[in-house]
């Protein structure tokens, strides 16, 4: 490549020698046959070297778009290059929906699934939990098709790109639905302490935003079907549209004020037609058991001055438990603490390390695609099925074509 390729945030310069954009699965197979090392790029929204390689990067954006509704309108089969925004638009036109979406509709479906990216809601699993089938082109060009009936399926869904190239996924879908989005401001600290579980369960999807400059919550974003009036545990309704990051234009955000609208225009925080931001940020996130939610908030509060000095905003969400081997929500309902930092790696990393130390006693698991410093041994110990996952990787990719330095370190010997 004449120009070095970076991730979305610009904090990672990929070491790849070539970038490929195959237009078909056959072209993909030809590409894999001509390389000894390869990684799939996705939408480039990882903030660490998960997608890096010294070999060949592969973008699936050029694959033909596929949106095939399954029998009984219960599933959709889609290609490995599609983004959630496009999939949502196509599903909505059919009167269907996925169960949840992340804050950004701009991310790729396959990449979000591979890293267990999530939305919010005490009853909703992360985005990977909607997957009922995977089609994986392996290093030798053969196609592996896995469904929930396969014993290794739960290990293959959140796969970190280690098994091969996901060329198609089958997702569970539901009938389309409407939601209203409300923003409340200045939730008192005592309300957060006394009613945390009630607040987090007060909508289909609930996000709490704070800059950790005070003791309360700056904004509560609540998405639900039913209308709301009055205050929310002492928080007051915003008097107009809001953006979660102070100073950013609310025009970029999905409609608020309790106006009912289709699911794909309410579940994400940001509109599909706007670039979410300039990428001038870093991101970290840790998942703790939801039963440890108050203790986790107290641990962050103990580092308030350190955190707020390099923070743009922190988002607090919930995710339901699942059985996926490498999901941060494996076998436990979770509270996720997401930090959007300033774009200064040198200033942010020491704070990240301090947060990890404070949250470690609570069993914190980092989001696979974010900035963290947890050592590989600690990561392996956090997942009861990690040994099984390593064996699965060895069977799918014995020559290590899809490995990189990041994965080698994680998988160990």
Give the helix tally.
Answer: 11
Per CATH, what is the topology of the largest domain?
Alpha-Beta Plaits
Q: What is the architecture of the largest domain at the second tier of CATH?
A: 2-Layer Sandwich
Q: Structural class, from helix and strand content?
A: alpha+beta
The whole-number mean of residue pLDDT values reads 96
Our measurement of the CA-to-CA distance between the termini, rounded to an integer number of angstroms, reads 32 Å
Compute the number of structural domains: 2
Q: Which percent bin holds the helix content?
A: 10-25%
Radius of gyration equals 21 Å
According to CATH, what is the class of the largest domain? Alpha Beta
Main sheet attributes: strand count, strand direction, barrel closure: 9 strands, antiparallel
Q: What overall geometry do the principal axes of the alpha carbons give?
A: globular
What is the H/E string? Answer: EHEEEEHEHEEHEEEHEEEEEHHEEHEHHH
> How many E strands?
19
């Amino acid at each position: 490549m004449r120009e070095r390729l970076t991730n979305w945030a610009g904090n990672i310069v990929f070491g790849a020698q070539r970038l490929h954009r195959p237009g078909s699965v056959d072209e993909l197979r030809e590409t894999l046959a001509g390389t000894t090392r390869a990684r799939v790029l996705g939408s480039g929204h990882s903030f660490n070297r998960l997608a890096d390689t010294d070999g060949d990067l592969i973008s699936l954006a050029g694959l033909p778009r596929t949106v095939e509704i399954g029998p009984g309108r219960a599933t959709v089969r889609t290609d490995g290059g599609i983004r959630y925004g496009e999939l949502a638009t196509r599903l909505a036109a059919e009167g269907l929906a996925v169960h949840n979406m992340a804050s950004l509709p701009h991310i790729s479906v396959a990449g979000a699934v591979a890293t267990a990216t999530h939305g919010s809601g005490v009853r909703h699993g992360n985005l990977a939990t909607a997957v009922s089938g995977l089609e994986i082109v392996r290093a030798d060009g053969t196609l592996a098709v896995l469904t929930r009936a396969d014993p290794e399926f739960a290990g293959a869904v959140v796969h970190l790109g280690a098994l091969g190239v996901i060329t198609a996924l089958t997702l569970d879908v539901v009938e389309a639905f409407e939601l209203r989005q409300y923003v409340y401001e200045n939730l008192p600290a005592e309300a957060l302490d006394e009613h945390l579980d009630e607040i987090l369960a007060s909508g289909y999807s609930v996000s709490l935003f704070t800059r950790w400059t005070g003791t309360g919550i700056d904004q509560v974003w609540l998405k639900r079907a039913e209308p709301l009036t009055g205050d929310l545990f002492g928080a007051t309704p915003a008097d107009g549209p809001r953006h979660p990051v102070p100073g950013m234009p609310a025009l970029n955000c999905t409609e608020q004020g309790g106006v009912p609208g289709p699911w794909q225009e309410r579940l994400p925080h940001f509109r599909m037609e706007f670039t979410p931001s300039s990428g001038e940020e870093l991101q970290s996130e840790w998942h703790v058991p939801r039963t440890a939610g108050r203790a986790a908030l107290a641990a962050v509060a103990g580092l308030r001055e350190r955190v707020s000095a390099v923070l743009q905003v922190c988002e607090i969400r919930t995710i339901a438990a699942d059985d996926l081997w490498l999901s941060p929500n494996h076998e436990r309902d979770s509270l996720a603490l997401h930090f959007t930092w300033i774009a200064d790696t040198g200033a942010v990393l020491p704070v990240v390390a301090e947060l990890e130390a404070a949250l470690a006693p609570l069993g914190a698991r980092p989001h696979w695609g974010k900035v963290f410093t947890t050592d590989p041994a600690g990561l392996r110990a956090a997942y009861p099925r990690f040994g099984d996952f390593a064996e699965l990787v060895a069977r799918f990719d014995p020559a290590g074509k899809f490995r990189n330095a990041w994965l080698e370190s994680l998988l160990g010997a």
